[in-house]
Amino acid sequence: MPGLSEEDVDPDPISQFLSWYEYAPCDAVALVTASPQALPSGRMVLLKGVDKSGFVFFTNYGSPKARDLAANPRAALLFFWPPDRQVRVSGWVAEVGRAESERYWRTRPRPSQLSAWASRQSEVIESRTVLEERIVELGSRFPDEVPCPPFWGGYRLIPTSVEFWHHRDDRLLLAAPVFEDLSAGVPADRAAELDVDGCESQSALPR
Ligand SMILES: Cc1cc2nc3c(=O)[nH]c(=O)nc-3n(C[C@H](O)[C@H](O)[C@H](O)COP(=O)(O)O)c2cc1C
Questions:
Q1: Stretch 55-77: mean pLDDT, rounded?
Q2: CATH, domain range 6-106+148-195
């Protein structure tokens, strides 16, 4: 993985991110949201696209994280790539266009599609048997193609700040270039209405 010396740092934070991400061991990332009462909440999601328009992940629009984002469309992503790299991203979040969600949905394996229909996120399901029965029922309801549920889709985090941290063994240098005010023009009350239909992820990640 390229280092973070002054000569190595790409002036474009997304290019810098991609140069590290190419070597990342996985596409999981911690997503942190906050409720209207400012109660923070973190969980892992899978990064499914990144380009100059932002970082894309998919989820259930009825989930607690989606409720946080509806009330407060700001969030942070935290990547940790052992043993020594961290990337912190924060910014505004908007739903991706329906076409983009459906396109990604079609790439998911059938069992994941059926379980997305079967599970209401963070809902306590009575038992594993109940969940399995639901999946069997859904399998008969959708014998061929499984449609993308109306309550499921993507979000794009549009970064306002990206920080790269490389913890060096010699402890002489903790390199952390920070790129701020990347989209300072995105006002809070506009974030939820951002027109993202036109900005599909060009570099959907092959993972
Ligand atoms: C490695 C990993 C990847 C995950 N990826 C996703 C994901 O892409 N989308 C998602 O909705 N949940 C994903 N989850 C589950 C979430 O972490 C979380 O438990 C779930 O979405 C409910 O979160 P919420 O109650 O905060 O809305 C993942 C969990 C793990 C451990």
A1: 96
A2: 2.30.110.10
Over residues 145-176, the pLDDT tens digits come to 999 999 999 999 999 889 888 877 665 445 56
**Residue range 80-104: average pLDDT?**
94
Instruction: Check 43, 120, 171, 207 and give the catalytic one.
Output: 171
Residue 154 to residues 100, 168, 186, Cα–Cα distance (Å): 8, 35, 19
- Rounded distance between C-alpha atoms, residue 25 and residue 23, angstroms: 6
Ligand 1 centroid to 43 CA: how many Å?
6
Q: Report d(CA 185, CA 163) in Å as an integer.
A: 19
Distance (Å, whole) CA 3 – CA 176: 11
How does pLDDT run across 175-205, given as a tens digit for each residue?
566 776 665 545 445 444 444 333 333 333 4
Using the mean position of ligand 1's atoms as its centre, give its distance from the Cα of residue 40 in Å: 15
pLDDT at 127: 81
Ligand 1 center–CA 171 separation, angstroms: 34
Nearest-atom number in ligand 1 for the CA of 66 is 27
Going 121 to 123 to 124 to 129, the CA torsion angle's sign is: negative
Q: Is 171 a catalytic residue?
A: yes
